[in-house]
Amino acid sequence: MGQYFATVARGLETLAAEELVALGAHGVEPQFCGVAFQGHVELLYRVNLWARLPFRILVHLAQVPCQDAKALYQGIQRLDWSAHLTPAETLAVRVTGKNRQLNHSHFTALQVKNAIVDQQRHYWGRRSSVDVQTADVQANVHIQRQQAIVSLDSSGRSLHRRGYRPAVGAAPLKESLAAALVRLTGWQGDVPLLDPLCGSGTLPLEAALQALDVAPGLLDSTFGFQRWPDFDANLWQALLQEAQARRRPSLPVPILGCDRNSDVIRQARHNAQACGLADQVRFFQQALATLDAPADQGIILCNPPYGERMGHPAELADFYRLLGDVLKQRFKGWTAFILSGNKELARHIGLKSAQRFPVYNGSLPCQWMKYELY
Description:
374 residues, VC0802-like, seven-stranded mixed beta sheet, EC 2.1.1.-
């Protein structure tokens, strides 16, 4: 049984652990910015294909001493790389963490690379080429005090990049965070869902992908493990066919997104087209001030600007007051969720939150605030 580690955004560890359990993982253990778990190769493939919250799925190889560069080199050399990498495959090394002796990631990566290719020269008489962009095999080394955790990156790219979003707005949410925010609402696809400040459409699109049971990996089904020497193509094809068969044909309720900016709405429609949802999610141009509820009940969710990358906090206070007024006056019977990275601005909404979920948008601490609208 393999030992795996899913890297996730800070604050989403518990939610990601629940997702991994649902996918069949064993020994699930939330840790800082990730979740350790166990399973066989089928689970490794399945998690890459289906998990919505992780960035990367790492396969644990070993833990080696790294009190200095020499110790790290020797520890990497003691591992048998022939089962994971032949000279025909390209190699990249990614290093995270540091200690007193190994405090420069590029230098540390060179030590790891040298240890691997020197072993290859001894074993094969030739070595892999380095490809930092699209390597067949990426070795991950995490320096943690005097130990280095050595893993292989089975994903090859960050899983949050679904492949449908070449068009983004000025301050886009990562797809993985958007998926987590939708999940935190508890929405089951039983009532309409609306984002009145939809930007490039990430929240409505991730909601639609969940409601239609679309595996996110189907949108860009290229993964690091497909280039590994032991890749099981038949198993992977069976998992792809299973995922394609599970996709539901249509949404049971409307999913809507609007924005006052016509260019932004064009971006959102382009993204919907790219992930096959152009006929499922409706994007339309409309200003918040003129927006009415499209049904008697539903979920409204949005990521308004909060002054970090868009606008100035002092200029946004009026906008937050407007948002609160629209919710109070026109969305009675709905439940609203608002992402806020600015507590002062959030106060201008003028509503008492029923619940708050702490999350991080990148490195910025935020609150996903729930409002019951009566």
